[in-house]
């Protein structure tokens, strides 16, 4: 493709491959014009009927909705504006119908207790495994204490299965905050003291090119050849040892599988917003996951974490393209997971989902604003997939995954445009004089009015397709006694479903504005950057809430005034959206608060926490290590200093390039008379540059020694 070029992410560097000598894996670069001829996995061939059923159901529902909307608009002839409304309605209704049909399939799968495409026994004894697996935890400016707590809980859980010798653990840091970097090293030393040094490794990457995907790719180049599989984690991931071992065993039993994605359950929610997401994900997630897995087959998808990957398949097929052009559409792909799965499937490997396997957890942003900030980055990454869609050789289901990711963000501005066109259509009917006797012979006048009764039925049908999957998920839970008891009873859950639906309806309009704004920013060329994700309890300042929810509130007021000025019926039709927008600020305040939540949205993990979750919370609540001032911490801890220096990679800076931050730092080192003076002068970027450079760091430490010596010689 002329819009892409080969990324250096998985190429050989300087003619050498950064792999152990015993590695059997070659690292070819990804080329979109070279399609592997071998296709070891043909599992998807048996899913043709299922896919036909899903697509046929979607087309049938969409056709019915389109016909109903046409009947609403066609009275008196369809104008240009009404034609645009109809077109947008068909697109948006098809999106809803597709999700509904897949959820309906998931309902019947859950009722029948259907098994995954790759059957994994999650109740029998822990199986024996014979392969080596690397547990990879990439982090970026995270709280080291909580990261180590989760990592240690997982390490101990795997150790309890008796298979610890088959796993190595890698903490892959891309942290750019100098204080957090040293805090990571301190926390990791404590982790090694608690767990031993044999299977735990820490690496800080000096050049965080391509972000998380580049972090993983660099590990594959350097160490991947020594391992059969790797399990990718996020900073907030948590997995039980039982689940980890069963995933690896499933890979051993299915040599054609490149990836098995688990269905992570949200945990540790504290604010009302995160509790809503946790409850919805826990109740509705299995239905959606089961429905998708039912027809995905071996063409499933990858969500970037809590998944096991065959290293050979990843190394041979998942080299990411670097998109031509400027950011936000060009450069490294932010949402790399979809593309990596598509490339491995194109090479003939199977991509699977394990929806019935528990013991896989993650966390959620604590507030709507934090969720929208993360969504902004995902939006940019998914829109970059537009350039990947035409790549030759991709399986059509893989293209559908990419298209679905793109559509999940484009639908927001389409809904907003649909609402605006609805206002304009009503405005047209209000001001444009109707033509009761059009050209040609007619015995009776033509009354140009939409059918309000049929319009109400179309609206009700659309709402039904949105709400019915929630009720189906509730029914699937109620009919299974163990699940019902784990949730705390059917009546309480039904009340929670109603409350969640109402609150979600209030939140959705603001998300529509945030996502529409994100798409607009990307279209005008604004890059999302790489922001640190907040993982607090969700409390936000009043100023931040008022400032960031001002736009949704203003949109709601403008819509309300416009609709009321045209007609009261139009205002009533738009009330669900207008209320959510007009109340955006109070909704933002209430949902970001951790107070007054109670047990209404409790999940099975709240009622009976798994052992690994209990252990992670126990470790996180004790022994907190506050991030120290980096240079001062190294000055006071010689053992940490030399360990830090030994971990620094050799300098690979290209000739002719200058590290400006390091140059400024060195100038300040030369001009400073004491460590304290230098400490107060160095910026965070300059401190980071010093921490990366052996010579500069030793100069600073020598300054400390000189300062101490001078103090000793000073007259009393």
Descriptive key words:
57% helix, alpha/beta, 27 helices, seven-stranded mixed β-sheet
Tell me the layout of helices and strands.
Layout lengths: L3 E3 L41 H26 L6 H32 L21 E7 L4 H17 L6 E7 L4 H18 L4 E5 L6 H13 L5 E4 L5 E2 L1 H13 L3 E6 L2 E2 L5 H25 L10 E4 H7 L3 E3 L12 H11 L3 E5 L5 E3 L5 H16 L12 H36 L20 H27 L2 H7 L2 H34 L18 H7 L1 H17 L1 H6 L1 H8 L1 H8 L12 H4 L3 H10 L9 H7 L1 H10 L12 H12 L3 H7 L2 H9 L1 H20 L3
Parallel strand pairs: 2-3, 2-5, 3-4, 7-11, 8-12
Antiparallel strand pairs: 1-10, 5-9, 6-12, 7-9
Description of the structure:
The protein has 27 helices and 12 strands. With 716 residues, the chain is an alpha/beta fold. It has a 7-stranded mixed beta sheet with strand order 4-3-2-5-9-7-11, sandwiched between helices. The radius of gyration is 28 Å and the shape is globular.
């Amino acid at each position: 493709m002329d819009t892409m070029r080969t990324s250096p992410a998985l190429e050989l560097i300087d003619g050498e491959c950064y792999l152990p000598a015993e590695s059997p894996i070659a690292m070819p670069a990804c080329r979109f014009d070279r399609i592997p001829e071998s296709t070891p996995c043909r599992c998807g061939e048996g899913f043709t009927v299922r896919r036909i059923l899903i697509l046929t159901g979607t087309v049938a529902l969409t056709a019915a909705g389109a016909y109903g909307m046409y009947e609403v608009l066609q009275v008196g002839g369809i104008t240009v504006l009404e034609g645009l409304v109809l077109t947008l309605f068909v697109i948006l209704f098809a999106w809803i119908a597709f999700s509904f049909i897949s959820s309906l399939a998931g309902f019947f799968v859950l009722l029948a207790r259907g098994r995954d495409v790759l059957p994994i026994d999650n109740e029998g004894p822990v199986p024996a495994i014979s392969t080596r697996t690397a547990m990879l935890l990439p982090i970026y400016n995270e709280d080291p204490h909580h990261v180590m707590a989760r990592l240690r809980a997982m390490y101990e859980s795997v150790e309890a299965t008796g298979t610890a010798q088959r796993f190595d653990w890698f903490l892959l840091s891309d942290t750019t905050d100098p204080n957090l970097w040293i805090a990571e090293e301190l926390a990791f030393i404590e982790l090694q003291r608690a767990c031993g040094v044999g299977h735990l490794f820490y690496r800080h990457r000096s050049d965080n090119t391509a972000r998380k995907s580049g972090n993983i790719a660099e590990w594959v180049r350097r160490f991947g050849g020594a391992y059969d599989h790797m399990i990718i984690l996020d900073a907030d991931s948590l997995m039980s040892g039982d689940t980890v071992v069963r995933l690896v065993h499933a890979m051993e039993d299915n040599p054609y599988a490149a990836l098995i994605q688990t269905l992570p359950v949200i945990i540790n929610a504290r604010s009302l917003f995160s509790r809503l997401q946790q409850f919805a994900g826990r109740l509705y997630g299995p239905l959606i996951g089961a429905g998708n897995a039912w027809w995905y087959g071996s063409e499933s998808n990858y969500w970037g974490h809590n998944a096991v990957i065959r290293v050979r398949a990843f190394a041979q097929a998942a080299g990411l393209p670097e998109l031509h052009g400027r950011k936000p559409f060009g450069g490294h792909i932010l949402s790399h997971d979809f593309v990596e799965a598509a490339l491995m499937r194109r090479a003939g490997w199977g991509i699977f989902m394990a929806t019935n396997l528990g013991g896989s957890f993650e966390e959620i942003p604590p507030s709507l604003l934090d969720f929208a900030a993360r969504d902004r980055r995902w939006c940019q990454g998914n829109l970059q997939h537009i350039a990947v869609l035409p790549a030759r050789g991709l399986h059509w289901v893989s293209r559908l995954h990419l298209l679905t990711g793109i559509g999940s963000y484009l639908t927001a501005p389409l809904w907003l445009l649909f609402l605006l066109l609805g206002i304009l259509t009503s405005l047209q009917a209000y001001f444009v004089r109707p033509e009761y006797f059009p050209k040609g012979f007619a015995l009776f006048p033509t009354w140009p009015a939409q059918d309000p009764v049929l319009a109400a039925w179309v609206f009700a049908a659309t709402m039904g397709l949105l709400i019915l999957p929630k009720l189906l998920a509730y029914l699937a839970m109620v009919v299974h006694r163990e699940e019902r008891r784990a949730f705390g009873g059917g009546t309480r859950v039904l009340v929670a479903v109603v409350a969640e639906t109402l609150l979600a309806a209030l939140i959705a309009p603001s998300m529509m504005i945030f996502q529409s704004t994100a798409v607009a920013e990307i279209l005008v060329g604004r890059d999302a950057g790489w922001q640190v994700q907040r993982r607090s309890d969700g409390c936000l300042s009043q100023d931040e809430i008022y400032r960031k929810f001002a736009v949704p509130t203003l949109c709601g007021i403008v819509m309300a005034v416009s609709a009321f000025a045209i007609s009261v019926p139009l205002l009533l039709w738009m009330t669900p959206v207008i209320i959510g927008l007009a109340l955006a600020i109070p909704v933002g305040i209430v949902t970001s608060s951790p107070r007054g939540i109670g047990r209404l949205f409790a999940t099975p993990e709240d009622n009976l926490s798994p052992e690994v979750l209990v252990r992670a919370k126990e470790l996180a609540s004790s022994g907190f290590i506050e991030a120290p001032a980096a240079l001062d911490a190294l000055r006071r801890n010689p053992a940490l200093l030399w360990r830090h220096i030994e971990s620094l990679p050799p300098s690979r800076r290209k000739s002719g390039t200058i590290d400006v931050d390091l140059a400024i730092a060195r100038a300040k080192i030369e001009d400073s008379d004491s460590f304290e003076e230098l400490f107060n002068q160095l910026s965070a970027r300059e401190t980071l540059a010093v921490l990366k450079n052996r010579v500069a760091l030793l100069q600073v430490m020598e300054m400390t020694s000189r300062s101490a010596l001078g103090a000793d010689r000073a007259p009393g």
